[in-house]
Amino acid sequence: MQRFLQLPGAVVRPGGRGAGAADQEAASPVLAPEGGPPPWYQALQPEELRWLQAPEEDTIPEASLEGPGPEPGQSQSQPLRHDDLKEMLDTNKDSLKLEAMKRIVAMIARGKNASDLFPAVVKNVACKNIEDPNQLIRASALRVLSSIRVPIIVPIMMLAIKEAASDMSPYVRKTAAHAIPKLYSLDSDQKDQLIEVIEKLLADKTTLVAGSVVMAFEEVCPERIDLIHKNYRKLCNLLIDVEEWGQVVIISMLTRYARTQFLSPTQNESLLEENPEKAFYGSEEDEAKGPGSEEATTAALPARKPYVMDPDHRLLLRNTKPLLQSRSAAVVMAVAQLYFHLAPKAEVGVIAKALVRLLRSHSEVQYVVLQNVATMSIKRRGMFEPYLKSFYIRSTDPTQIKILKLEVLTNLANETNIPTVLREFQTYIRSMDKDFVAATIQAIGRCATNIGRVRDTCLNGLVQLLSNRDELVVAESVVVIKKLLQMQPAQHGEIIKHLAKLTDNIQVPMARASILWLIGEYCEHVPKIAPDVLRKMAKSFTAEEDIVKLQVINLAAKLYLTNSKQTKLLTQYVLSLAKYDQNYDIRDRARFTRQLIVPSEQGGALSRHAKKLFLAPKPAPVLESSFKDRDHFQLGSLSHLLNAKATGYQELPDWPEEAPDPSVRNVEVPEWTKCSNREKRKEKEKPFYSDSEGESGPTESADSDPESESASDSKSSSESGSGESSSESDSEDQEEEKGKSSESEQSEEESGKRKMKKRKKVAEGQGEGSSSDEGSDSSSSSSESERTSDTEEEQVEPDSWRKKTPPSSKSAPVAKEISLLDLEDFTPPSVQPVSPPTIVSTSLATDLEGLTLTDSPLVPSLLSPVSGVGRQELLHRVAGEGLAVDYTFSRQPFSGDPHMVSVHIHFSNSSETPIKGLHVGTPKLPPGISIQEFPEIESLAPGESATAVMGINFCDSTQVANFQLCTQTRQFYVSIQPPVGELMAPVFMSENEFKKEQGKLTGMSEITEKLTLPDTCRSDHIVVQKVTTVANLGRVPCGTSDEYRFAGRTLTSGSLVLLTLDARPTGAAQLTVNSEKMVIGTMLVKDVVQALTQ
Amino acid sequence: MLTAPSSRPSGLARLQGRKGEVHLQPACSGPRPKRFRLVGVPRRASAQGEDLAIHGEPEYQQLGPQPQASALEDKLLTHLNRRPVRGWRPDELGKMIHSLFLINCSGDIFLEKHWKSVVSQSVCDYFFEAQEKAADVENVPPVISTPHHYLISIYRDKLFFVSVIQTEVPPLFVIEFLHRVADTFQDYFGECSEAAIKDNVVIVYELLEEMLDNGFPLATESNILKELIKPPTILRSVVNSITGSSNVGDTLPTGQLSNIPWRRAGVKYTNNEAYFDVVEEIDAIIDKSGSTVFAEIQGVIDACIKLSGMPDLSLSFMNPRLLDDVSFHPCIRFKRWESERVLSFIPPDGNFRLISYRVSSQNLVAIPVYVKHSISFKENSSCGRFDITIGPKQNMGKTIEGITVTVHMPKVVLNMNLTPTQGSYTFDPVTKVLTWDVGKITPQKLPSLKGLVNLQSGAPKPEENPSLNIQFKIQQLAISGLKVNRLDMYGEKYKPFKGVKYVTKAGKFQVRT
Questions:
Q1: In the predicted model, is pLDDT for residue A1066 greater than 50?
Q2: Higher confidence at residue A110 or residue A742?
Q3: What single DSSP character describes residue B390?
Q4: Which residue of A has its CA nearest to B26?
């Protein structure tokens, strides 16, 4: 780094200064009160500037202090020369600059003030580097420049930031984002301009920039939530590839955002599972018909229907979930708090496991996590119950951890687990750590108040503790017993007697006070002992602590009122003692009490009510957790930890009553030709929601990375007309979509051109700087992109479980089911066919900026199918008497059984009356085939439609699955016959593996067919699209450009299905399918050939 | 960004970090100047809004090396810049980490680093106060609130890393970062100790400068840092001291810009090797009667990868379903794991933790050892009996070795007179810690430790019998039964050497008595 920080050697060390500078500075000449140097030296002593400082001490005339900031006319003696020098510095001739520098140095050496030349010098030192061809140097120069905390250079800094924000290199843009808060803290007047830069950078699509710019946003303009709208979906989608620190910042910002933009998911929990799909249709409608009349419908939707989760809300939840697996505790916590604050109750459970995992981390992490778990476990006890044992305490835990764990254990205790919990507590009571023991006793008290069943057990246990040798234990027990007794005093006269005896021994003031209060309160239960206790206390009154004294007065008053015969004198004695006590509280209390209880000649009106006042029944105390209601602070925040608002804490907003317009997050489609312009290329997600395939459900269609985008695109085009109503706008969307996603789609002429242009530009700009990008050989780049494609898909996967959990299930079982499913080993995997490894994700792909993308056959593979054949009719509306049923193959793993084909059944009711009790009747199935029925649909109102998922195990055959579709009144015989391509699921494979496996499947298992590809079917992406539409296969990378490879496994037996298409440019092609299952192979060949030649 | 002057005074140097600048002053031989107490310092609630200070602690007597700076600076600032100086209020100074202090166990602040403006050392007094209050070093609260700052600290390797925060920030963010700093020191210097940090003070500052920019983490991946700043070697430090050059990389790093942020580019090895250590730790609580209250297996796979180029690895297991809850290094393709239960990744270069996992308590956990114990203290007598025997239980036919038993005896224990049948024992009468180094178990003759305990006379007998903390190690065994199936490499042509090692250890293994 050093080299671009330093001035040329001659400049830096004039006249032997330099090395000694540090010492001199330590003596702090700049702070000499009379010197009055400009303030910026405080903020900055980079080495190269130190020389400027030399003359200050002696030569600044007092007058110069009056000179204002940037353009000071100071040093009036030589203004001309300075202009002169400035001019020289501003030229672009190096020799002149050097000369100027030399002169400045000479000036300084002679003790002249040259501080007004500072900006010019800075410009030459740092700014020059800002234009350096090497991106790292540019970035570092900006970092240096922005670290100089001198008001004069604000304009320069602003310029530099603006420039860097549109730099070609993402790293430089990241640095620009970092510089924004620095400049803002230097001069907050720049806010408006900085917001412009932030806005621009927010639109950036690289993962490198995302975290930093959101951080800048949070610091400069967190209130400008409107800037987020357009970038919301992009941020959600990028999230998984952002570095850990950025993830935390983005997640916490998005939590706030979601709280302002979406409706609370906790209303109408039960309806929730069913609805997201509807939401999709809703938004689809909306988007298809534009922001006109339909908008009202969408807005009204939540009001009409009980609750509909905004698809964007869902997107956020889905895309953050994989991050629970992060190695960074901060990220896990960030996701956990997001789920806690934003997710429907049924889904919050997923965070528990990850949080429990963090308990194995460093003790500081444990401390913070336990604080948050303590708060969460009050609101959502069920979530942590399965992990009860993970909160058991070890004798080696630090005390603060022990106490937090105890808190959690207490919160988790319920009717069922209380015996186990109490047994644990018993162990803890014997601990050597007395603070911990005290906390345990309190915890027992809390359990006893909360769980009535064990109250007596706890009480007895606590009474036993009264004979403990340790006074602290006894004292704490007394305090807790007092609280418990207050709940049912009548039954416990014995315990009160026992406690009364303890007054002789216990010295802990709180405990003594508690006993006295108890005796006084329940003196009628211990009529004989009470006066005696008072006698003893009167004797020792002067030596007692203040709280004890107050309770003695209290006791005396109560006894006087109930048993004045025995205690009158004692009471008077006590009150007299108290009258002269040193503590004014006690004196006051004594005076007050005397007036109340002793009838005097003035006969205060109150004294008649003394009994009512003193002996009023008092409500039992509620033993509450100190973590109760702490969740009004955003979890995971510093404020939550401290239970006090920290500086700069931003309140977590309440959910809005009505959802704000969701269309603000729709992103404009960039114009085709301008695509190469980074700023204009905003993410566009709209088409996802308007994708007309209901069968793929909301989960994937919302997932808007270019793969699935283009995939769904290709899909919907293949089944045109199947959409709801909006085929026109749909196709428009597709068009635009292609434009967007085809950064790499070479088949399109335009994009090809554009790409060329871009490539050239990149080569110019980044060539020198980024050797690694270019240096990395093609294999590495492909393998990298493979990774990113995977991470992109992650966003899709986890949700498929959630979606398929039956809609009716209650919260707890769902959570459980999810965790169980988590373990499930989906061999025929993934929602989407595991897409070919060559896919480049949005996020990292833009990082590459076309550097490493070879234009070869890898590119078109961006297309991967979302689902197979379009909707098929199961039951016609006429035959079904108003009930129309369609089905689609969703190509997602069926959650219950990986061997089953997941079939989405769409019902719609076009009759006048509601259809009730839709379910599957006794199926008549060929041997081997089995069906997992969908949960019964209770009622389908007229005009409504619903979707259900069922699984069918076709046993790797195309036999027909016949079953009955029953309503309350009717039965319809229906059948589903799968196309052969749906009997398989894609597998991930490398080229080598593919070849190896193919080698094993020759002879009988190999089926070959020659064909001629029509002209319309020669571009890569069409071929891939056609094949993947026919068969649910995943693309395998391939070295040669004319060959396409796909791989999959049959669902039931898991036999490999390998498909190779060798296409010559002339159109001649050869299709090979290798599979053990010859029937499937033959049929597949037939289907594929048909699809390709049509 | 700013590096220390290359010609630096030799010998121990005391450092003062100031406004991002490193100053080296002649060594200050004595201990840290007397800690200034906070007696009488008014603790204003929180009126940050009104002070216009560069330093956040205007009302402190600044006894340190920055005497009465703030007030004067303020004056000058307002004087020189006619327009109102805004943006200096603490709440506008930006978030995240402001300063870092490293403090050793005896309470010396031996290194400080400021990213924004200087915060006086005196802010650490709040930390010392909390430290005094806590009986144990581990009990210092990680987050302390002071009138103008928040202190977030971690305790690592007998050092406290105390960071100064001014505004709301997720505490775990800071804690995680501080641990990352400590990890980096460990990685660079082999240990994270005061001596190592002092010896490599220039590198330490360079690292801190790169890791945090304006208080926000910048480069934290070890692979990238190592490209920016070379780790010290003896040879290099000799060369540097002769030539006066520094450890800053001469060639500019490319790593930050590669599309794989955790791997440096252009890695070359003559021997290409990939080693994986599967380390499983058994966390358990065994109750008095010998039954298991709680048991869980916590595992990690640590990798040491020395492979040239850009290898793409996939590691598969025989029984991946065992892994219940997994957390990943960012290099792992989450999706592949989800769909195929295969770990597929382009590794960072060098050592790193690939995954950590948990085998949940739902599965039965084999407990390899049992302990028979009889510890008793006689009433009204100043002695007690102590007798423990260790034996193998479910050890899968492997030898259990490296057994150590640690017992925190009650305070009243004065001394212990024991005889081990095997190994050796020590009892520290100050900390009351009994350590018995057993070694291996031979089933023929079970190791035992018997004898008398001397108690303080007159003191009541201890309530609780102490828990026994047990350490052991079993080589070549993963107790969960996890087995690596195969490691495949793609993307490179050469054939690497691959190795997997299994170890089972006791984690937090506690026997209640």
A1: yes
A2: A110
A3: E
A4: A23
Burial of B513 (0-12, 13-18, 19+ CB in 10 A): middle
Residue pointed to by tokens 């009930």? A883
Are the beta carbons of A938 and A916 closer than 8 angstroms? Answer: yes
Plot region of A1073 (φ>0 → left; ψ -120 to 50 → alpha; else → beta):
beta
Tell me how close the Cα of B82 comes to any Cα of chain A, in angstroms: 6
The amino acid occupying position A792 is E
Which ipTM value was assigned to this complex?
0.81
**Chain B positions in Cβ-Cβ contact with residue A208 (cut-off 8 Å):** 261
Chain B hits for A432, Cβ within 8 Å: 408, 410-411, 462-464, 466
pLDDT in tens, A242-267: 889 999 999 999 999 999 888 888 76
Q: Which of A368, A389, A782 is nearest residue B294 as measured by Cβ atoms?
A: A389
Query: What would the two tokens of residue B386 be?
Result: 């102590």
Q: Which fold has domain B95-213?
A: Beta-Lactamase (3.30.450)
Shortest CA distance from B344: residue in chain A: A787
Structure tokens at A667: 């992103």
pLDDT number for residue B232: 79
Please tell me what DSSP assigns to residue B145. Answer: E
Give the range among A346-355, A554-563, A814-823 with minimum mean pLDDT. Answer: A814-823
Distance from CA of A1063 to the nearest CA of B (A): 26
Q: What is the pLDDT of residues A57-108, one digit of tens each?
A: 333 333 333 333 333 334 344 444 577 777 777 776 767 777 777 777 777 6
Output the 3-class SS for B184-251.
HHHHHHCCCCHHHHHHCHHHHHHHHHHHEECCEECCCCHHHHHHHECCCCHHHHHHHHHHCCCCECCC
What's the pLDDT score for residue B176?
93
Which chain B residues are Cβ-neighbours of A797 within 8 angstroms? Answer: 335, 338-339
CB B504 within 8 A of CB B280: yes
Question: Which residue of A240, A320, A364 to mutate against B (max B Cβ within 10 Å)?
Answer: A364
Q: Is the pLDDT of residue B296 over 70?
A: yes
- End-to-end distance of chain B based on CA atoms, in angstroms? 56
Give the gap in angstroms from C-alpha A649 to the nearest C-alpha of chain B: 5
- Testing the interface with A: which of B229, B257, B260, B379 to mutate, by most A Cβ within 10 A? B257
| Domain chopping of chain B, boundaries | 95-213, 273-365+479-505, 369-475
Smallest Cα–Cα separation from A473: which of A424, A427, A440, A426? Answer: A440
User: Chain A contacts of B256, Cβ < 8 Å?
Assistant: 136, 171
Between A1053 and A818, where is the model more confident? A1053
- Whole-number pLDDT of residue A712: 40
Strands A1068-1075 and B14-18: unpaired
Phi-psi region of A103 (alpha: psi -120 to 50; beta: other; left: phi over 0): alpha
* Bridge-based pairing state of the strands B383-392 and B212-213: unpaired
Chain A residues within 8 A of B21 when measuring between CB atoms: 45-46
The DSSP code sequence of A637-680 is: SHHHHHTSPPTT--PPPPPPSSPPPGGGG--PPPPGGGGGSTTT
For residue A653, give the nearest of A372, A267, A261 by alpha carbon: A261
- In this chain, the answer to whether the domains covering B273-365+479-505 and B369-475 adopt an identical fold is yes
Answer whether B79 sits within 8 Å of A65, measured CB to CB. Answer: yes
Using a 10 angstrom Cβ sphere, with 0-12 exposed, 13-18 middle and 19 or more buried, the burial of residue A287 is buried
- Cα distance between residue B307 and residue B316, in whole Å: 19
The tokens for A583 are 């503590």
CATH superfamily of this structure's domain B369-475: Mu homology domain, subdomain B (2.60.40.1170)
Taking contacts as CB-CB distances below 8 angstroms, the residues of chain A near B44 are: none
**Residues of chain B with C-beta less than 8 angstroms from the C-beta of A363:** 138, 142, 155
Nearest residue on chain A to B262, alpha-carbon basis: A243
Q: What is the mean pLDDT of chain A?
A: 71
CATH domain B273-365+479-505 topology:
Immunoglobulin-like (2.60.40)
